[in-house]
Structure formats: structure tokens, C-alpha cells
UniProtKB/TrEMBL annotation, chain A:
The protein's name in its UniProt record: F-box domain-containing protein
Taxonomy of the source species: Eukaryota, Viridiplantae, Streptophyta, Embryophyta, Tracheophyta
Domain F-box intervals: 6-53
PROSITE patterns: FBOX
SUPFAM superfamilies found in the cross-reference section: F-box domain, Galactose oxidase, central domain
Domain of life: Eukaryota
Species name: Acacia crassicarpa (northern wattle)
Listed Gene3D superfamilies: 1.20.1280.50
UniProtKB/TrEMBL annotation, chain B:
The protein, known as: SKP1-like protein
Family affiliation: Belongs to the SKP1 family.
Domain SKP1 component dimerisation: 113-157
Annotated SUPFAM superfamilies: POZ domain, Skp1 dimerisation domain-like
């Protein structure tokens, strides 16, 4: 056997190879697992997976559009270069057709498939579209009425799903948590959620999951509106205040701004001829009088002529759906971005004929869904 | 170090001499330390050797000289834009022939900007490559058994070993 070593080409240090690989899209990395056993173990290594995620989070934060076309779920991605592409559906999702994205965290999506006709149990899937891995979360109940949240905590390095069961009046009855690390569900004490009700979709950020809700007063009436926060690491609920919004503000949605919890709202003036978007940020204050959190208004948009629904904050933009009939037409924009610095707005036509249900922040990762 | 020195001489691993201005040399941490520690006046005999071949060193010095003014004084947005375009042109090079050498040199000389640029260039080139092309440029042998290949194919449909 003749061994030829080309001395002109250097063998790169592993450190350099890792620095190159972390810049590759998931699709290429899946392919390059087949290069050699060493490359496969390099790519599968959790520390590399984390490095790749970190690079992707900082260099290419994307938006995920949960779009519905004739009741079929389609996922579309918008990257930093404003390129839109269809995220590949897993064959299982293509088969089920319907699904409801609960949350997006580090490239993993939690999808509720309970409304699929052939499924009788309350069922959830974990899906990584970049590597097309899917896994069914064990079911705990046949009948579920309530709110689900999904998120990650770096403190415990674990992904968790929370199910809040509510009665007809939206009062919390029971809470269950699923950990991807242990692969099992467990019940939680209600604690501060005793006498609280939940009434909104969830939002996940900074190791916590949030919902809007109310705390009932002693007579059982709706008391103060609150934000319910679930610490993923500690598995503890906390109640946070809501800001004092303009009366009749609607479509309040939670987001993160400069790593702080933020609230987006919209209101119309002059018989709904123009609309304004507001951004509020929650900051920790040192107040001996008791209140630990205070909300500050950071931004009010220029007037916008259409009814919009704020969805999230992406890079330096507030992302909104344009919710007029106009938005459903093929070529009309259905999404608008409000730049927080320049105050300019950019209209986009995303996914064309599909109805956009939700818009999530998304980063591509190669994190496996098959347990950790 | 005497403040009158504006350029220093260095030797490549092939033994060729190269001039590099002090401000450009400062982009490299080890060179910067050397500038602070060693005497570089005109009557100094010692010429430091950089373990990088001549062909690569020419490119590294070219990069340093281009980036030094901006690194030392900061730059306007239009300068940054111009520099970005220059980087793209600068990186149009053969992977095997020179890019890998630049990667090794930038890593060895602790030049963050050039290292990042070279890693990104390599990644952009690799994105579209086949598995066998990757093996060729990285000198890697396919060490999977046919059973292992079959298993990987099952896990990731469309996974190719060629």
C-alpha cells in the first residue's frame, strides 16, 4: 500500500475545524456526519451542538411563520437576509396535516396535534425542523382543557412542557410538567395559582414561560390583571403586574426586549383611522414600599393606517400581522415590521395565500428531540 | 521599543525576509507582545521568525496593512462597507492551496478578524460540497463499515457517503 501525504496542505487543528463547522447550516452538518466516525462524534457532541446553537442565535435569528393553508399546517422561515423559505415538514406532520405550534425554543418546536381527527388523546410532538427529527411526548390524559407552554432553562439545561388545566371559568385546577431530560410528567402544587385564572396564549423567554391571567379577589370576582410566570428551572409560579395601558388597547402580547420581559400592545384613534404600537419593558426596581417590578413605555410607533396585531420582537423590529381583509389577498402585504430605531415600517407579503396564525422567533439548531 | 521604529522585519518559515509596519503587526497578539518586549531598533540584530510560509505570510501582511488603519482609529460606516468588499475579494482563494494555510496562520498569530473571516470563507465553500469532496480536502478516510453506513442512511434518509 502506498501512502501519499501531500505536505503542502496542512492538517487543521480540531479547534479550527469546529470553528468552521459551527458556521454551517444544519442541512450540511447532517450530511457531513457521513464523512468519518470522528466527524460524526464531533457533530453529535453536545458541546458542539451548543456552540452551533450559540453561533446561529447570534448570527442568524429567524422568524417562523405558522401558516395554515386549507387547514394544513405549513412552516415558513424568514432569515436575517430577508430570504423566505418553506421549512421542511416531517412526513408525520404531512400525514397529520393539522397542528398547532405551542412554542419555539433553541430550534425545537412543541406542536399540539390534539385537533387532528384521528387522535383521541391530548397529544404533543417535539419537532426539530432543521434536522427533521420528531418525537411524540407521552400523553397523560384523554381530555384536556387548558393552556400549554414550552421552554428551555439553561440553569438546568432542560426543556420542559407545562400543562395548566382550567375549568369553564378559566380557573386553574391542576398543573403538570414534562421534562425532556427525565422523559416523564409530574404534577405540581398550585401554590400561588390557587384562585388564579389564565386567559391567554403563552410566551417563553429567559428560562420562563408566561401567560396573561387574573387573580380572583376574595369574592371570587376578577381582580387585578396579572402576568403568570413559570420558572422552568425552579418549577415555581410567580405573579407579575401588568403595565397601565391606554384604555381599549388590544392584542397585548409578550416579547423580550434587551433581554427583559416586554409587552406589545396596539390601539386605534379617531374611529380607528390610525393605529399605534406600544412597547413596554418590565424592569426590576428597588422599592421599599413593596412593588418589585415596574413597567416603562419605551416606544410608540408612528401612526399606521391598518389594524395590526403585534406578534414578537425580532432583531430591532416589532413584528406585526396586518389583520385586514386586504392582508388575505394574494399579493398584499400581511406582515409589517416597525423599526425601533429608525421608526420606519416595512411591509412584507409572507406565505402568500396561507393564513398566518402565529409568528415565532426561531433559530436553527441540531439539538436532538430524542431525549438528552 | 524606540518610538522611531515604524516597520519591523520578520522571517518566514522559508527564511525570506518581510517588512511589516508596527501598526499592522499589532493586529496579532503574539507580534504585539514581541514588539513590547524585544528591542526592534535599527542596530538590533535579531529578526524574529514567524512559523508561516512565505506565500501565506505575504497574504497575512497584506490583510494586516489593510485593516490596521481601521483597527487603530475606528472607521466610518462607509469605510467599514469598503473593507467588507475588500475582504470578499481578498478571500477569493483556493481552499487547499492557501485558505487552510491562512486559517493555521491566523490561529497561530491570534488574529481574531482574519481567523473569523477565514473560517466563514471555508464554511461558505464547504456548504455545497459532497461528502467525498470534504474527505479529499481534509485528508479523511471513510472509516464507516457498510453496516454503519446503512444505519446512518436509515436515520437520515438522503444521507450520502459519496
Amino acid at each position: 500500500m502506498k501512502i501519499v501525504i501531500d505536505i503542502d496542505v496542512p492538517f487543521l487543528y480540531e479547534e479550527i475545524i469546529i470553528n468552521i463547522l459551527k458556521r454551517l447550516p444544519a442541512k450540511s452538518l447532517i450530511r457531513f456526519q457521513c464523512v468519518s466516525k470522528h466527524w460524526k462524534s464531533l457533530i453529535k457532541n453536545p458541546s458542539f451542538t451548543a456552540e452551533h446553537l450559540d453561533h446561529s442565535t447570534h448570527q442568524n435569528p429567524c422568524l417562523l411563520f405558522e401558516a395554515i393553508d386549507r387547514r394544513t399546517l405549513n412552516l415558513h422561515l424568514l432569515d436575517c437576509e430577508m430570504q423566505l423559505r418553506r421549512a421542511p415538514n416531517h412526513p408525520l406532520l404531512d400525514y397529520l396535516k393539522r397542528g398547532w405550534v405551542i412554542g419555539s425554543s433553541n430550534g425545537l418546536l412543541c406542536i399540539d396535534i390534539s385537533m387532528v381527527d384521528c387522535i383521541s388523546h391530548h397529544s404533543l410532538l417535539l419537532y426539530n425542523p432543521a434536522i427533521r427529527e420528531i418525537r411524540q411526548v407521552p400523553t397523560t390524559c384523554t381530555d384536556f382543557h387548558g393552556f400549554v407552554g414550552f421552554g428551555f432553562s439553561p440553569i438546568v439545561d432542560d426543556y420542559k412542557i407545562v400543562k395548566i388545566y382550567v375549568d369553564e371559568a378559566y380557573d386553574v385546577e391542576k398543573v403538570e410538567v414534562y421534562s425532556l431530560r427525565t422523559g416523564s410528567w409530574k404534577g405540581l402544587e398550585l401554590g400561588i395559582l390557587n384562585g388564579a385564572c389564565v386567559n391567554s396564549e403563552r410566551f417563553t423567554a429567559n428560562g420562563a414561560i408566561f401567560w396573561f391571567g387574573f387573580k380572583r379577589d376574595l369574592l371570587g370576582r376578577n381582580g387585578d390583571p396579572v402576568i403568570i410566570s413559570f420558572d422552568i428551572a425552579m418549577e415555581v409560579f410567580t405573579l407579575l403586574p401588568r403595565p397601565a395601558l391606554v384604555p381599549r388597547s388590544y392584542q397585548n402580547r409578550l416579547a423580550t426586549y434587551e433581554n427583559k420581559l416586554a409587552l406589545l400592545s396596539c390601539y386605534g384613534i379617531r374611529n380607528y383611522e390610525s393605529f399605534f404600537i406600544e412597547l413596554w419593558v418590565m424592569e426590576e426596581v428597588v422599592a421599599p414600599s413593596g412593588g418589585r417590578w415596574s413597567w416603562t413605555k419605551k416606544y410608540t410607533s408612528n401612526p399606521y393606517p391598518h389594524f395590526v396585531r403585534p406578534m414578537t420582537i425580532w432583531k430591532n423590529e416589532i413584528v406585526c400581522k396586518i389583520s385586514t381583509a386586504r392582508g388575505r389577498e394574494n399579493d398584499n402585504p400581511n406582515t409589517v415590521l416597525f423599526n425601533l430605531t429608525t421608526r420606519e415600517s416595512t411591509e412584507l407579503a409572507v406565505c402568500r395565500s396561507d393564513y398566518v396564525r402565529h409568528i415565532f422567533n426561531y433559530v436553527e439548531s441540531i439539538i436532538p428531540v430524542g431525549g438528552m | 521599543m524606540s518610538s522611531s521604529v515604524e516597520a519591523i522585519t520578520v522571517l518566514s518559515s522559508d527564511g525570506d525576509e518581510f517588512k511589516i509596519t508596527v501598526s499592522a503587526a499589532k493586529l496579532s497578539k503574539p507580534l504585539n507582545w514581541m514588539l513590547e518586549d524585544v528591542c526592534f531598533s535599527d542596530d538590533c540584530d535579531e529578526v524574529p521568525t514567524i512559523e508561516v510560509n512565505s506565500k501565506t505570510l505575504v497574504k497575512v501582511i497584506e490583510y494586516c496593512e489593510k485593516h490596521a488603519p481601521r483597527a487603530n482609529s475606528g472607521a466610518s460606516d462607509s469605510d467599514a462597507e469598503e473593507l467588507k468588499k475588500w475582504d470578499i475579494e481578498f478571500m477569493k482563494m483556493d481552499v487547499k492551496d492557501i485558505l487552510f494555510h491562512i486559517l493555521m496562520a491566523a490561529n497561530y498569530l491570534h488574529m481574531e478578524g482574519l481567523y473569523d473571516l477565514a473560517c466563514q470563507t471555508a464554511a461558505d465553500l464547504m456548504k455545497g460540497m459532497t461528502v467525498s469532496q470534504i474527505r479529499k480536502i481534509f485528508h479523511i478516510k471513510n472509516d464507516f463499515s457498510s453496516e454503519e453506513q446503512e444505519q446512518l442512511r436509515r436515520q437520515h434518509p438522503g444521507c450520502s457517503f459519496d
